């Protein structure tokens, strides 16, 4: 953890240093501005005092301390009027004129004011501490007066401390933001690494699964007793290992001709019977690709254009048949070549040993399309929960649901849209039931919900909720509006009394068919169990056939 995150400390340290330098520079700039403003403020006060003196002289009088005090009201500043020798003539802190006693040393600021108009000094004063002095020369008709403003350094220091406090606060806030951004970046990178590792792990698991399936394939094929039974189980195995491909197996008969014995992934676009001389794989004795290195050479038994892969089925040097695949594009064909050749090798060793798909189905518990639990897991769960409910004398309910008119829906919108509807309905059911309930795909568009601890009334309420919720959904796939989809539901319940799993399922199934016969988009219970539930409005669907789903 630390090693993977260590490089991120370098940009963090850089950001903290840059933030600190920025705050130091900004603080210094603002402090300089504060000092300049302080000096300008003292100058303004001195100019106001000079204006008072000048006005009083023109009026033939002298300013009073009270007038000076009112001028500085609310300020800690002190205003004094001095003559050109530095003697204080009037002071805002005294009630009257001060005695004009000679001074031994003229203050620096007074000397500067007499020489250049303005003087400025900072020095310590008894009982006061450090004080800023600003003196302003005021020439009159027959004499020169000096207006001096004095203010304790503590005033400016207070301003600077306030500025530094806010600068520190802003720096801490900036540091907090930097640390937050750094933490977010670290978490994002770590999540990216975890996702990449998970993706790689998925690929490894998928490859491991393929290898396991191939090994299992060879093992199962050795247990088959006839070529026919082996070819029949070849379809689910091939669809699992080679998704998106149409495939077929043709075996050589005694006449040396080949006959198609199995196909999967849709109708096979090739000849059902053909001669060995019509297949380049059999003629060459190795894999043949219809397009290889930019050259397209298709086998004669292929009746439709496409990316075709033919692999001879060999056993102890003898050709038994051909394993053919058809893909929608060349990339899929190239990606599947390795697995296809491994499969062909297993099939060639013993065509009677293909039982892997059924056993893998028994081991798997999830339906690959809907993500729901599959039928096998449902039966195991129902068996155990039924035994538990009978032992504890607790209710157990089953909801059997079927998508209305699903066959017509597939015919109208295609199987991709049908798969999308199954997936969306499965998601809705999963979100609406309790965590203790089990939702599974029973087969096709039929789904089952097992509700331990739920009586018939609760099961009917849940079924109505599911039917209403699905009917309210809007379905759109690839920009196409699919209209509304409805469910029919049948409910059965065991109240802890002895009943077989088959009887409970049959009761739910019969209730489902009754819901179908009574108009669909509704819920039915076993006949005579409860009054008929509330009928639900049926959304607009595609035109129906005589026997919709």
TrEMBL record:
This protein's record includes keyword Transmembrane helix: yes
Pfam families assigned to the protein according to its UniProt record, in alphabetical order: GGDEF (PF00990)
MF terms in GO: diguanylate cyclase activity
Domain of life: Bacteria
Catalytic activity, as annotated: 2 GTP = 3',3'-c-di-GMP + 2 diphosphate
Region (Disordered): 523-549
GO BP term, example: negative regulation of bacterial-type flagellum-dependent cell motility
Keywords: Membrane, Transmembrane, Transmembrane helix
Residues that span the membrane, as ranges: 12-30, 165-185
InterPro entries recorded: Diguanylate_Cyclase (IPR050469), GAF-like_dom_sf (IPR029016), GGDEF_dom (IPR000160), Nucleotide_cyclase (IPR029787), Rev_trsase/Diguanyl_cyclase (IPR043128)
Domain GGDEF: 394-528
EC number in record: 2.7.7.65
Keyword Ribonucleoprotein: no
A Gene Ontology cellular-component term: plasma membrane
Enzyme class: transferase
PROSITE patterns the record matches: GGDEF
Cofactor(s) listed in the protein's UniProt record: Mg(2+)
Name this polypeptide is given: diguanylate cyclase
């Amino acid at each position: 953890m630390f090693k993977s995150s260590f490089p991120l400390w370098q940009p963090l340290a850089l950001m903290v240093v840059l933030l600190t330098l920025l705050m130091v520079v900004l603080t210094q700039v603002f402090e300089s501005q504060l000092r300049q403003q302080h000096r300008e403020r003292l100058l303004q006060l001195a100019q106001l005092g000079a204006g008072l003196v000048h006005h009083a002289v023109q009026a033939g009088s002298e300013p009073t301390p009270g007038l000076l005090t009112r001028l500085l009201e609310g300020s800690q500043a002190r205003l004094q009027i001095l003559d050109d020798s530095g003697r204080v003539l009037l002071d805002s802190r005294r009630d009257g004129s001060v005695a004009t006693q000679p001074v031994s040393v003229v203050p620096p600021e007074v000397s500067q004011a007499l020489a250049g108009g303005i003087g400025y000094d900072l020095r310590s004063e008894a009982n006061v501490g450090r004080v800023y002095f600003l003196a302003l020369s005021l020439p009159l008709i027959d004499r020169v007066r000096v207006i001096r403003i004095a203010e304790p350094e503590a005033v400016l220091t207070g301003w600077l401390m306030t500025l530094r406090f806010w600068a520190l606060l802003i720096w801490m806030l900036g540091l907090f933001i930097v640390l937050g951004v750094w933490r977010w970046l670290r978490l994002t990178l770590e999540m990216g690494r975890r996702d990449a590792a998970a993706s790689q792990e998925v690929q490894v698991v998928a490859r491991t699964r393929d290898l396991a399936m191939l090994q299992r394939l060879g093992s199962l094929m050795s247990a088959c007793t006839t070529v026919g039974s082996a070819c029949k189980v070849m379809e689910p195995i091939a669809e699992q290992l080679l998704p998106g491909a149409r495939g077929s197996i043709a075996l050589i008969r005694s006449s040396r001709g080949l006959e198609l014995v199995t196909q999967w992934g849709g109708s096979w676009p090739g000849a059902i019977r053909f001669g060995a001389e019509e297949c380049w794989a059999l003629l060459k004795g190795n894999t043949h690709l219809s397009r290889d290195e930019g050259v397209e050479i298709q086998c004669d038994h292929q009746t439709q254009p496409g990316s075709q892969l033919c692999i001879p089925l060999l056993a102890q040097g003898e050709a038994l048949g051909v394993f053919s695949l058809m893909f929608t594009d060349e990339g899929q064909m190239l990606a599947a070549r390795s697995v296809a050749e491994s499969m062909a090798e297993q099939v060639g060793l013993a065509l009677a040993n293909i039982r892997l798909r059924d056993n893998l189905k028994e081991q798997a518990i999830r339906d690959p399309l809907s993500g729901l639990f599959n039928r096998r897991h449902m039966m195991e769960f129902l068996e155990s929960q039924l035994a538990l409910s009978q032992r504890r004398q607790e209710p157990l309910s089953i909801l059997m649901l079927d998508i209305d008119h699903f066959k017509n829906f597939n015919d109208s919108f295609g199987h991709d849209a049908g798969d999308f509807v199954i997936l969306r309905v499965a998601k809705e059911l999963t979100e609406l039931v309790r965590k203790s309930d089990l939702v599974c795909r029973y087969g096709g568009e039929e789904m089952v919900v097992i509700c331990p601890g739920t009586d018939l009334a609760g099961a009917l309420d849940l079924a109505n909720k599911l039917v209403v919720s699905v009917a309210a959904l809007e379905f759109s796939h690839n920009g196409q509006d699919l209209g509304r989809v409805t469910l029919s539901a049948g409910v059965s319940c065991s109240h802890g009394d002895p009943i077989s799993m088959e009887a409970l399922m049959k009761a739910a199934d019969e209730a489902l068919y009754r819901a179908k016969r009574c108009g669909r988009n509704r819920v039915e219970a076993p006949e005579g169990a409860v009054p008929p539930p509330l009928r639900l409005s049926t959304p607009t669907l595609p035109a129906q056939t005589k026997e919709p789903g």
